[in-house]
Design brief:
By secondary structure, the chain is of the alpha/beta class. It has one domain: SGNH hydrolase (Rossmann fold). It contains twelve helices and seven strands. The strands form two sheets. The protein has a five-stranded parallel β-sheet with strand order 4-3-5-6-7. Helix 9 packs parallel to helix 10. The longest helix is centred in the middle third of the chain and has 18 residues. The radius of gyration is 19 Å and the shape is globular. It starts with a strand and ends with a helix.
C-alpha cells in the first residue's frame, strides 16, 4: 500500500472562472453542438426504470448557486492508493465476442448523480476544490454543490477545469499508473464507477469538441505521465461539415504530438461510432474508420474497431445502445467498457 499525495499544493492560485450568463452559451461556445449540451440539454445516459430514484430534498442554505464562482487554491490532501499492478505493453488484442453477462452485470450507481453538463461541471469543480479526483468519487458526491446548478459552462470554462485537473494529477500521480480519456461528450459521460480502481483515470472529454479542439488542448497533459491514452473523436467534425481528410489530418497530428510529449504511453485510437442521423451516412463513417485504421498502422499506435459491435444490420448505431441516435445510453456504455477492460 502506497501513501500518495494525490493532489499536491499548486505552485500558483488557480485562475478564477468568469461568471456566466446562461443566455450567452451559444455565442461563446461555438463548438458545442445542439445534441451535445447547447441550451442545457442533458447528454447523460438515461438509467432504466428500475434504477430511477427520487433526488433528496435540500434546504435553501444547502443549495448550490447557479453562478459559476471562482475556483480557490487547492488544498493539500493526503490519500492512499494500492500499488498498481504493472500492465504489459504490447499489441492491442482483438475485441472478443461480447459476453452478455459480463456487460449487463456491471453495477450502475442508482442514487442521485449529475444529469446535465452544468451539474457535472459543478461536481467536478467541487471535487477539485476539495483536493479529490472526480473519477475516484462516488457519483453522488458533493450534492449540495451541484444539485440545483443550471448555468451552463462555456467550452473555455470546461477547458480550464480539465487543465486544472490534469495539473493536479500530474503533481500527485507519484509512481501510480494513469489512463487519460480524450474526446467529446461520449467520453465525458463515461460512468466513472466502472473504471478499474488500480490506477488513476483522467477524463478529458468536452461536450461538442472536435479533433481540432482536442489538438489545441493537448498541452494541458504536459505535466502528466500517462500509461495509456484513449482517444475517440471526429463525429462532431462531421456534423459541422468537415471533410474526412480534415478529421484524418487532425487525428494524425494528435497522435504525433502525443507520441512526442508522452513517448512512454500506449495510445489507443477508437473507431468513430456509427449514428442514426440521416446526415451522417453509415458508409461514410465506415470508410473514414478504414482510413483511421490505416493511419494508426503507419504511426504505430493501436486501433480498436468498435463498429462491428455498435452497428445494426444497416450499419447505423444500434437503437438499443443510444438515447438520441448519437449519444450512448447505459447499455452503450457497458459495451464500451467491455472494450476498455480488454486493454
Amino acid at each position: 500500500m502506497n501513501e500518495l499525495y494525490l493532489l499536491a499544493q499548486l505552485a500558483e492560485a488557480v485562475r478564477a472562472a468568469l461568471p456566466l450568463e446562461p443566455t450567452a452559451i451559444a455565442a461563446v461556445s461555438p463548438q458545442t453542438t445542439e445534441a451535445e449540451g447547447a441550451g442545457g440539454v442533458s447528454t447523460q445516459p438515461t438509467a432504466i426504470a428500475t434504477e430511477a430514484h427520487a433526488q433528496p430534498a435540500f434546504s435553501p442554505r444547502q443549495a448550490a448557486s447557479n453562478v459559476l464562482l471562482p475556483l480557490q487554491k487547492l488544498p493539500v490532501v493526503l490519500s492512499s492508493l494500492p500499488q498498481p499492478e504493472p500492465v504489459p505493453m504490447g499489441t492491442m488484442p482483438q475485441m472478443s465476442p461480447i459476453s452478455t453477462g459480463l456487460v449487463d452485470n456491471l453495477a450502475y450507481f442508482a442514487g442521485p448523480r449529475p444529469s446535465s453538463g452544468s451539474q457535472l461541471y459543478h461536481q467536478r469543480r467541487a471535487a477539485l476544490q476539495a483536493g479529490q479526483l472526480y473519477t475516484r468519487l462516488a457519483p453522488d458526491s458533493f450534492q449540495a454543490q451541484w444539485i440545483n446548478a443550471q448555468a451552463q459552462p462555456t467550452y473555455e470554462q470546461w477547458q480550464q477545469l480539465l487543465a486544472q485537473e490534469a495539473k493536479a494529477v500530474g503533481q500527485g500521480q507519484g509512481q501510480n499508473q494513469l489512463t487519460v480519456m480524450l474526446g467529446d461528450s461520449l467520453s465525458l459521460w463515461l460512468p466513472p464507477e466502472w473504471l478499474p480502481r488500480h490506477q488513476f483515470w483522467l477524463n478529458q472529454g468536452i461536450s461538442g469538441d472536435t479533433t481540432a479542439g482536442i489538438l489545441n488542448r493537448l498541452s494541458a497533459l504536459d505535466n502528466t505521465r500517462p500509461t495509456t491514452i484513449h482517444l475517440m473523436a471526429g463525429i462532431n467534425d462531421l456534423r459541422h461539415g468537415a471533410s474526412n481528410q480534415t478529421v484524418l489530418t487532425n487525428l494524425s497530428a494528435i497522435v504525433q504530438q502525443l507520441q512526442q510529449r508522452h513517448p512512454q504511453a500506449e495510445i489507443v485510437i477508437y473507431s468513430i461510432l456509427p449514428t442514426r442521423l440521416p446526415q451522417l451516412p453509415s458508409d461514410r463513417i465506415a470508410d473514414l474508420n478504414q482510413q483511421i485504421q490505416s493511419m494508426t498502422a503507419q504511426t504505430g499506435v493501436n486501433f480498436l474497431n468498435l463498429q462491428p459491435h455498435f452497428a445494426d444490420n444497416q450499419g447505423g448505431l444500434r437503437p438499443d445502445l443510444t438515447t438520441d441516435g448519437l449519444h450512448l445510453n447505459l447499455s452503450g456504455y457497458r459495451l464500451w467498457h467491455h472494450a476498455i477492460a480488454q486493454i
